[in-house]
Predict the 3D structure of the following.
Amino acid sequence: MRMAVLLSGSGRTLDNFHDCLASGVMPGSIEVVVSNRAGALGLEKASRYGYPAFHAPDNQAINAILGRYQVELVLLAGFLKLYLPPPSLARRVLNIHPSLIPAFCGDGFYGMRVHRAAHARGVKVSGCTVHFANDAYDQGPIVVQRCVALDEADTPDDIAAKVFAAECQAYPEAINLVHVKGIDHFWKARC
């Protein structure tokens, strides 16, 4: 699959994708990387890896860039805005969320906010969810979920580290499943 990566920050998930593609763990290719934040470290990494890398401040600018590439799947990788794709990419956008949806999700729940909320609630299990994105935060069909056990002594930073380790396995696994089963499989299962 030909993929685009949208990010807002450091590009840790892009690092994981790059390593998985290089090792053959994940099929496909990254055609372009776009960030809604100018100067994002993830754009620097993308350039070092040899991927075309662009800053685009909004959905219209992002979609104009993606329209210049043959993209079959859009991967949200720490992208902190609601992305609205063009009709040709509707239902072709995957996202990863740092909790087990439906827990700690929706507008305003991202990154450390999720892990602080999980810590404050005292949950014993957290994890991550890879799901298709639609026009509402964290509401699209779920592809993969990974659980991680939490200890009473875990801080929000400890939770974040455990969940990110799970994300590094879950996201490539989800991409592989989409590659094998097809995008429609997951949307039909939801209906």
User: Anything to note?
Assistant: Helices lie at 12-23, 41-49, 59-66, 111-121, 156-181, 183-190. The beta strands are 2-7, 29-35, 53-55, 73-76, 93-97, 125-132, 142-149.
